């Protein structure tokens, strides 16, 4: 798969920006399509695919339950 796509879930990346999600989606679509930049006649399909993968990635990251992540954060909280 794409070695340049970073793992975006905690605790690997505790904070993920919209730009991180879009960059990963763009890399995925580039890899799958084989195009770094699509021709004009493929631009709409390419952009729609990036948007769909971005949405799916955002939904996935929002739905994941990372066990132990809360406990680790609690351990580092000054108390």
- Share of β-strand residues: under 5%
Shape call: elongated
Share of helical residues: 55-70%
Query: What is the helix tally?
Result: 3
N-to-C SSE series? HHH
Describe this structure in words.
The chain is built from three helices and no strands. The longest helix is centred in the last third of the chain and has 21 residues, at 43-63. The protein is elongated. By secondary structure, the protein is mostly helical.
State the main characteristics.
3 helices; mainly alpha; disordered C terminus; 79 residues; elongated
Topology diagram in text:
Blueprint (H helix, E strand, L loop, with lengths): L17 H16 L9 H21 L5 H8 L3
Helix pairs in contact: 1-2
Compact description:
The protein is an all-alpha fold. The chain is 57% helix and 0% strand.
């Amino acid at each position: 798969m794409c070695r340049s796509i970073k793992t975006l879930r905690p605790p690997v990346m505790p904070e993920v920006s919209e730009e991180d999600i879009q960059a990963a989606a763009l890399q995925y679509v580039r890899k799958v399509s084989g195009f770094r930049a699509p021709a004009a006649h493929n631009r709409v399909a390419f952009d729609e695919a990036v948007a769909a993968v971005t949405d799916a990635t955002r939904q996935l990251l929002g739905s994941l339950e990372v066990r132990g992540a809360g406990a680790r954060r609690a351990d580092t909280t000054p108390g």
